[in-house]
Amino acid sequence: MPTPTCTRCRRTIPPEDINVANDVAYCRNCNISYSLAALTFETGLDATVDLNRPPAGAWCINDGGGTVIGATNRSLVAAAGLLFATLFWNGIVSVFVAAAVSGTFHVLHIPQPSWFPAPKMNGGDMGSGMVLFMWLFLTPFIAIGLILAASCLTTLFGRTEARVAGTQGSIFTGIGSLGWRRRFDPAQVKDVRIYQKINNEGRDTFVILIESHTGKQMKFGAFLSNERRQFMLGALRKTLRH
């Protein structure tokens, strides 16, 4: 078992401050208690990760402007599941969207194709109030459909990337130049670790968590495979010296 090391002060935690039965490792210098299992995993990972030999689909390079650590989000299994969910959800929502569009055309007196559904609701023509209600009601369902579609594309063509350049750091998740970029100060990073959470379906998911000395947390890497996520974790810890 790797020797547990405090992630803040980098000192080895002595055996007398380790309780295997309760899964606790205590750093007296920093007055912090850790999960022994998580700490030994990350300590071992730091020692074994090779920045020059990333797993397939991952990379760690210096592009002249800083260190770039990243991995593709590609997963055909996840993409297939998300594609089914996207088509199923948006297929149902599209029926109601078509009715809302038909009602909108009717209210605005715009000619519509003959194959469009009739602008009827409860046996009568839809008025402006009903059309407005329809769009307000459908907005969250349309948003969920767009999120599903974006997630499906991300698992096919997206990437997760961390950049560390001097006093500037950033995390990017997206496709090409389109995506979500968040910034952090490498000097203020207190810890980098794997964070386990339960998703909306009740299943465990794992992400990388960056925590600053001010308590600010940044989570990313949910789309990555375990191997790529662990490489990014180890490479980030080495780069940030945590």
Could you describe the 3D structure shown?
The chain is α+β, with helices and mostly antiparallel strands. The chain folds into 3 domains: 1-48, no CATH class; 52-74 and 159-240, PH-domain like; 76-156, no CATH class. It is built from 4 helices and 13 strands. The chain has helices spanning 36-48, 76-107, 128-157, 226-240, and strands at residues 18-19, 24-27, 32-35, 58-62, 67-72, 120-121, 124-125, 159-165, 168-175, 178-184, 189-198, 204-212, 217-220. The strands form 4 sheets. It has a 5-stranded antiparallel sheet with strand order 4-5-8-9-10, covered by helices on one side. Strands 1-2-3 form a 3-stranded antiparallel sheet. A 3-stranded antiparallel sheet has the order 11-12-13, covered by helices on one side. Strand 2 and strand 3 form a beta hairpin. Helix 2 (76-107) runs antiparallel to helix 3 (128-157). It is elongated and about 80 Å long.
Average pLDDT over all residues: 85
Number of E strands = 13
Give the radius of gyration. Answer: 25 Å
Broad structural category: alpha+beta
CATH class of the largest domain: Mainly Beta
- The helix-strand sequence is EEEHEEHEEHEEEEEEH
The termini sit apart by: 19 Å
In the residues, how many domains can be counted?
3
What fraction of the residues are assigned to beta strands by DSSP?
A: 25-35%
Helix content: 25-40%
Q: So, CATH architecture of the largest domain?
A: Roll
- Determine the CATH topology of the largest domain: PH-domain like
Low-confidence stretches: none
Largest sheet: 5 strands, antiparallel
* Major sheet: arrangement of strands: 4-5-8-9-10
Overall form: elongated
* Count of DSSP-assigned helices: 4
